[in-house]
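Ligand: D-4-phosphoerythronic acid. Inputs:
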Amino acid sequence: DKIAQAKKMAAERAVDFVEDGMTIGLGTGSTSYFAIQRLGERVAEGLRIRAIGTSKRTEELAQAVHIPLITFSDVKELDLAIDGADEVAHDYSLTKGGGGALLREKLVASAARRFLVIVDHTKRVHHLGKFLLPVEVVPFAWELTHYRIEQLGCRATRRRQDNGEPFITDNHNYILDCDFGEIVDPPLLHNALKALPGVVETGLFIDMAYAVIESDGEHVTVEYP
Ligand code: DER
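Predicted complex:
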């Protein structure tokens, strides 16, 4: 389908940035999936890279295509990180965390010299906020944290798995999906959330994108904020 084709085209364009010897951060989600598959093809052709995955799922996908995995005990900086987003705003701030991996994704993106965001064109918005904002919170006192987050002006719901059990992140935390409506000042909201004890991380990625690689399934554009 057209959207999958768009994700694949954006992902494969991002992999063109990867050079022999690089250390790479691998994102989580259906767009990152295509980047991992393309990287696997290039590794099979002899490309030498080392990678850090942003989720256990991504680590499994990378191992399946024989991408060598390392950790932050081996490196403290990455050459490149490639990851998707749920929304990209006009100021290139991002909403991420739809896949529940936002904490590791933000750590990996923060460690990358260049963070490439790969999206299909439906992710582009003027302001963030149409997509519910994921916030990772520790389980202890989550009801108090939930209450305080709603006091900031939203309705927050704890993410559940299909079986109705609470979704648990790779870091053993909960995700609250928050409806703040249109987010006109992402830094202000991010800072207010991070000030709450019990909030681990938010899905607001501000001033982090080195490039936004977008496709509609026909063409690919690369934008540098
Ligand atoms: O969870 C995440 O942050 C993912 O990168 C998500 O934002 C994008 O997922 P998708 O590529 O499956 O749309």
